[in-house]
Amino acid sequence: MGQQHDAYFVPAKSYWPIVAAVVMFTTVFGAAHWLNAEPGDAGFGKTVLTVGVIGVLGMFFGWFRSVINESLAGSYNHQVDTSFRMGMMWFIFSEVMFFGAFFGALFYIRMFSVPWLGGTGHGTLTHEFLWSNYAASWGANGGNGPEHVGGTFSTVPAWGLPLLNTLILLSSSVTVTIAHHALRAGHRGKILVFLGLTVLLGALFLNFQAHEYIEAYKELNLTLHSGVYGSTFFLLTGFHGLHVTLGTIMLAVIWFRVLKGHFNKDHHFGFEAVAWYWHFVDVVWLGLFMFVYIL
Amino acid sequence: MSHAATHDQHDDHHGAPKNFFQRWCMSTNHKDIGTLYLVFALLMFFIGGSFAMLIRAELFKPGLQLMQPYFFNQLTTMHALVMIFGAIMPAFVGLGNWMIPLMVGAPDMALPRMNNLSFWILPFAFTLMLSTLFMAGGGPAGGWTMYPPLSLQSDSLAYVVFAVHLMGISSIMGAINIIATILNMRAPGMELLKMPVFVWSWLITAFLLIAVMPVLAGAVTMLLTDKYFGTNFFNPGGGGDPVLYQHIFWFFGHPEVYIMILPAFGIISEIIPTFARKPIFGYKAMVFAIASIAFLSFIVWAHHMFAVGLPMGAEIFFMYATMLIAVPTGVKVFNWVSTMWGGSMTFETPMLFAIAFVILFTIGGFSGLMLALVPADFQYHDTYFVVAHFHYVLVTGALFAIIAATYYWLPKWCGHMYSEFWGKMHFWNSVIWVNVLFFPQHFLGLAGMPRRIPDYNVAFANFNMISSIGGFLFGASQLIFLGVLIHAVWFSKKKATDRVWEGAKGLEWTVPSPAPHHTFDVPPVIHDDELAHGHVND
After folding, report:
1. Torsion angle, alpha carbons of B268, B273, B279, B284, to 10
2. Per-residue pLDDT, B270
């Protein structure tokens, strides 16, 4: 196992967990009120939600600050480091399963529910009695279901912005790896350049995705309401975009930490955790590019 | 690295802090957090139980007695959500928190602050969920499975979905913590195949939790966007399919069923060897059986949906895959019985509950096997037969194991023995009334009484009345449990020894009773003959 048992480390008491529980509750309580708000009383939920989100951001800032301070004070031994690594790996695994649910939904809809609605295979009666005119297909002609929910739309062509975004994310995986090697070799200038490039590439990706969304809404009439095509398209790319946003913020934080000299060649779990996360986001994108855009 | 100094960083090194808020709300101590989990689970058990009492009161005789059907539907929904996510799961996490570090010789959980967060999310999540009962429009009433389109009609959906998100975050963090503790914090010499079966069962359960809680989060997120943001995942008019929800939900839901029973298997595998004074029969087989059950749990989900209209090939695949589960489960039951075979047994309360578990859980397993048969399930589906089945595995299975574990480890937690007489009173009342409560429901189901209905045909009147009487008395019996706990923790004069039980083996019995606030600050030296499974030769 490679365990080191020089001395166990149990961290000191902290008020951050209870603060975290309170602000998480505030956020979702506000969000639920906001979603159920009647036209006249929209204020309360939004206010609580805003307070909650600010609280969550503050909590992350405070909790991570105290962890970073403890790390810099040398409190964390090899065993703690291993626990952190396991924690991050299993967290990423849970994220994989979260995306798995949405990919699973996409596959089910494309393989089963849409063809069945079109009268093939298993569910022919629905087709016969309700929508006998529906010719099932994915994409622009039929991806929004037999009732053409949301009206006629066009799909985003894979070989435009999505291809560019694929190249951007793949390059960013290369730059973050170069930065990692530079960290191991102890070249701080090189780390800052390549990690900075990674952050910029992440921001560029998000910028192009925003363009793509605006184009989809304004010119293609592809919206969240465009039947199940719009649902899967926007939830999959949207959750991915959210993860890219988080990853970019995390990379930016790591950039500042490198600037402040927080890491050395043996002790840089924070860097590695974020790099793993970034590779994970990259892999998810490849799945999206394949199954949402190309096929 | 200089950790010699850092080890003294926590000021409360030799005892619990005096300040109440600091001790319970800012804790990094696995024992205190474990206690919080257990107390929370007990509270939720009584809240969920009171819902069950109201349900049985309404069903006492045909016709509407006490409440409107819509409120009845809220009760069945909330009873399930509270018992599953509020009582059974937190109780197992609490037991894991208390016992895993003690069993593997670790000073605490691997990530103690995250441990505290995992717990403290829960009271808030349940406040959010239970508060819907008092809102205009009421709580969720579409069943705990939240099938669309029914669940989309309730305004409480947003609250329930967010509460489920919070519970999921809590479970995932708790599971990550348990895996990291087991893989990274074991004392030197505590090899994987020397670990107690309870620790093994939790390692595998934690993996299941991390794998499926995010899937549930995804499923309920789609409900949320379908209701509030105009997506069409479950709307056939837009190309979606309500059955898609059922697939995603049960991909979570079936492993979830095993999340609620695998730690129970672990508990029973600790208790029976202690009171039979024999090592567990077939230790490795027990571990591999748990792992096989966990693997199979991912490929059987559609057996919850046989009546929804699946393609024939799917029905046959899921039927056979489900029946396969009987093999490793049979191995476990066989090994528990073989452990007792020829042992010098005594029948203290934990052992009584453990034996009742083996017998009654097996009944639940057999009725599960009946439900696995597609043609038979067309008849049983959504009847009281299903209700009887899952209450046999969850009440006389999971809950009995939790109660057995509580009696078994309580002296280690509080330092005093509970009253054996009242413990046995609790046992005999529970085991008799739980059968009066649930056994007649098999007959009701076979005769065709549907579940989740507040009124029924007069033909079902007698068995329902018997079931309700059993229900009230089973509920009342749990007050004995509460009394025994209160007495043992605060009033009992009888000191517990370190070993507590004559036949008990394992690291947790080498520390004093009550277990000091901090244990194993220095890794213990493991002697194989002190361990329950130190010599694995089979």
Report:
1. -10
2. 97
Q: What are the helix and strand counts (H, E) for chain A?
A: 9, 0
pLDDT (tens digit, 9 = 90+) per residue, B278-335? 999 999 999 999 999 999 999 999 999 999 989 999 999 999 999 999 999 999 999 9
Is there a contact between A113 and B241 if contact means CB atoms under 8 Å apart? yes
The tokens for B26 are 């800012």
Inter-chain touch B311–A227, beta carbons under 8 Å: no
User: Does B301 qualify as catalytic in the annotation?
Assistant: no
pLDDT at B538 over 90: no
Answer yes or no: are the C-beta atoms of B115 and B33 closer than 8 Å. yes
Contact between B353 and B397 (Cβ < 8 Å): no
The reply to whether B384 belongs to the active site is no
Are A102 and B218 a contacting pair at CB < 8 A? yes
A residues 79..118 contacting B (CB < 8 A): 79, 82-84, 86-87, 90-91, 93-95, 97-102, 104-105, 108-109, 112-114, 116-117
C-beta separation of A78 from A4 below 8 A: yes
Give chain B's length. Answer: 538
Asked whether the predicted pLDDT for residue B416 surpasses 50, the reply is yes
Residue B269 among the catalytic residues: yes
Name residue B50's amino acid.
S
CB B239 within 8 A of CB A227: yes
Compare A199 and A40 and report the one with higher pLDDT.
A199
What type of residue sits at position B272? I
| Nearest Cα to Cα of residue B268 among B252, B294, B289 | B289
Compute the count of residue pairs across chains A and B with CB atoms less than 8 Å apart: 270
With CB atoms and an 8 Å threshold, state whether B7 touches A7.
yes
Q: Are B112 and A83 in contact (CB under 8 A)?
A: no
B281 and B338 Cβ atoms separated by less than 8 Å? yes
Q: 């007649």: which residue's tokens? A: B440
Q: Are B75 and B57 in contact (CB under 8 A)?
A: no
On whether the pTM is more than 0.80, the answer is yes
* C-beta atoms surrounding B516 within 10 Å: 14
Segment B165-203, tens digit of pLDDT? 999 999 999 999 999 999 999 999 999 999 999 999 999
Minimum CA–CA partner of B122 in chain A? A21
What does pLDDT average to over chain B? Answer: 94
Average pLDDT over residues B335-353: 97
Q: Residue B148 contacts by C-beta under 8 Å, 6 or more apart in sequence?
A: B223, B226, B234, B242, B245
- In this complex, which of A12, A29, A77 lies closest to B1 when CB atoms are compared? A77
Alpha-carbon distance of B371 to B307, in angstroms, equals 11
CA distance B476 to chain A (A): 34
| B512 Rama class: left (phi>0) / alpha (psi -120 to 50) / beta | beta
* Residue B529, Cβ density class (10 Å: 0-12 exposed, 13-18 middle, ≥19 buried): exposed
Give the CA count within 13 Å in the CB-facing half-sphere of A81: 20
Q: Could you give the residue ranges of the DSSP H alpha helices within A148-268?
A: 161-185, 188-215, 227-259
pLDDT band at A2 (very low <50, low <70, confident <90, very high): very low
d(CA B456, CA B450): 8
ipTM of the modeled complex = 0.95
- Distance from the Cα of residue A70 to its chain's centroid: 28
Residue B37 in contact with residue B93, Cβ under 8 Å? Answer: yes
Per-residue pLDDT tens over the stretch B464-515: 999 999 999 999 999 999 999 999 999 999 999 999 999 999 999 999 999 9
Question: H or E segment at A276?
Answer: helix A269-288
At A4 the three-state DSSP class reads: coil
H-state helical runs in B185-305: 197-228, 242-259, 262-276, 283-296
pLDDT at B26 over 70: yes
Distance from the A226 Cα atom to the nearest Cα atom in chain B, whole angstroms: 8
**Looking up tokens 């790099």, which residue turns up?**
A275
